[in-house]
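cron nightly-structures :: item 1 of 1
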Amino acid sequence: MAESIPSKTVDGKVDPFGYVGQAQSYAMYRPKYPQQLYDHLAQFLSPSEPRRLAVDIATGTGQVATPVSHLFEKVIAVDRSQSQLDKAEKRDNIEYRLATANTLDFIAGGSANLVTLAQALHWMNATEFFDEAKRILTPGGCLMVSGYAICHIHSSERAQELLSEHYKRLETYWDCDRKSLDSQFSDIEFPFARVERQTFPVQQTLPVEAFIGYLRTWSAYNTYKKGLEAADNDILIPLSEQLRDIARTQDPSDTLSITWPFFAIFAAKQ
């Protein structure tokens, strides 16, 4: 269980992913973006554009930086949370830097062939982010903003109802624009020459324990939990028991069938 006092980000704010043990859980339980997304990225990139430098902003534990490192000579992966960076996967061509999305002075203007941002635009001022992305991108360079909305449990209607109830209960604990994420950022205009939106739904069979591990990584859950005086009040304990009971009636291995609604917005700079 994560403790109730989080660490601070590089800009002195409360780190929403800085609760003890949370970064490790994030790396372990967060879903991985599908290969189809990176295949589409490779197709979207201009054939004439070099693949020297990619910049992954809000990299977390490197979920996107790592696969992108197979496409580019070098990746600079940035996050404001040292707790997240400490758990990031290390590769020879990935340089991890502690910084915020709008303090990238160490990256020269017009030097990045690709900028990526995964599961994070809803935490930011979109206009400021786009301005900084345009500053560091080369002419013809690309931006990929990706994410995934709330997943869907399709192996049991009751299990899906319980997830929806849990999500609604935590609605007021999000410190970000969660509705924008759930709409796949349809409310945000991307000020680029060419913009393409794609979805990449992925079905997965997941043990209940792993699914609960994923729910524990939600920043809203950790904000909710820091006000608890006893672990017995943890809303994930009864939810876990209920989901296990449901799963056992359908599969003795205690698994759930889940769809992750991955999406990405690809944009090209003139």
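cron nightly-structures :: done
The radius of gyration is 19 Å.
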